[in-house]
Design brief:
Elements (H helix, E strand, L loop, with lengths): L1 H8 L2 H26 L4 H19 L6 H19 L6 H23 L5 H10 L9 H20 L1 H9 L1 H6 L4 H23 L4 H13 L5 H26 L3 H23 L5
Helix pairs in contact: 2-7, 2-10, 2-11, 2-12, 3-4, 3-5, 3-10, 4-5, 4-10, 7-10, 11-12, 11-13, 12-13
């Protein structure tokens, strides 16, 4: 097994998969805590469907690299969801549902009408479940993922206190002068970036699992925001690396394997939390 792994690690695309997988997992875990605590977890699911539709548009328009246009459209939709959440006529969950279903349907429709691929079903399945995309990363996408991941982590660290404030008590934060709308906008944009990056790892339908499971797992044991953040990052990185390793050695789909490992991790932490009652610090 080790000889087989060593053989695979000689290939650049395998090394790219591990690097991108670890970086995306780290970014997803940081934002997942905020989304779970704000009860806004399904924004990841909604924006992932938007990203699928955006990618379909980029493919139809003939872009060789679909990530830039996908990123732009997803960020715009993240801002629209944020604005809709403040609209009394259209609630936040309703706006997510509209964008999610609409983007998924239109994306698949466009790919059917304008597709030049001989294996449309395979392309759609790969995009939705990330079965091969992480193993076909180019060096350009690798560099883009590294740059965007560094930006996401930097923003989280720089605005850590503000994100903490709007996560737990947005009304109080607004009362003491914090520009909550601005920081919510930051969070929405960063989430959109993470989701576009994660499409290469687990596919658009499984992104929510990558965001939610590490956060929920760490919450089973730790109680403080900082402890949960650190633990979530460690869990996410380990599960993604282990999932990629299993998928390479066993030949299973990458995205589904990572999510399966995340589920197993959550069950382990859930049992530990129930047995020991959590570590309250």
């Amino acid at each position: 097994m080790f000889a087989k792994l060593q053989l695979y690690l000689n290939y650049p695309f395998v090394r790219y998969a591990f690097i991108v997988g670890i970086l995306i997992s780290l970014c997803s875990s940081l934002l997942g805590i905020t989304l779970v605590l704000k009860r806004f977890s399904f924004i990841g699911d909604g924006l992932s469907h938007v990203a699928f539709g955006s990618m379909a548009v980029a493919t139809v328009l003939g872009f060789k690299n679909d990530m830039p246009i996908t990123l732009i459209i997803t960020i715009i939709c993240a801002i629209l969801i944020l604005q809709a959440g403040e609209n009394r006529k259209i609630s936040g969950d309703a706006s997510i549902a509209m964008l999610s279903v609409g983007a998924l349907a239109l994306g698949y429709l466009l790919m059917n009408i304008f597709s030049t691929s001989s294996n449309l079903s395979g392309d759609v399945c790969s995009t939705l479940f990330g079965s091969t995309s992480i193993l076909t990363l180019t060096k350009t996408k690798l560099y883009l993922c590294v740059i965007l991941s560094v930006i996401v982590v930097s923003i989280f660290l720089i605005f850590y206190n503000k994100i903490f404030a709007i996560t737990f008590d947005e009304n109080f934060a607004k009362a003491v002068g914090t520009k909550t709308n601005l920081y919510n906008l930051f969070v929405s944009i960063v989430i959109a970036v993470v989701i576009v990056l994660a499409m290469n790892l687990v596919g658009s339908l499984l992104i929510s699992a990558l965001i939610i499971f590490p956060a929920l797992s760490s919450m089973q044991i730790f109680k403080s925001f900082r402890s949960v953040t650190i633990c979530s990052a460690i869990i996410s990185i380990f599960c993604s690396a282990f999932g990629i390793l299993i998928s390479i050695l066993a030949g299973t789909p990458v995205g589904s394997t990572i999510v399966a490992v995340d589920i197993a991790g959550f069950l382990i932490f859930y049992l530990i939390g129930n047995i020991f009652g959590g570590i309250r610090k």
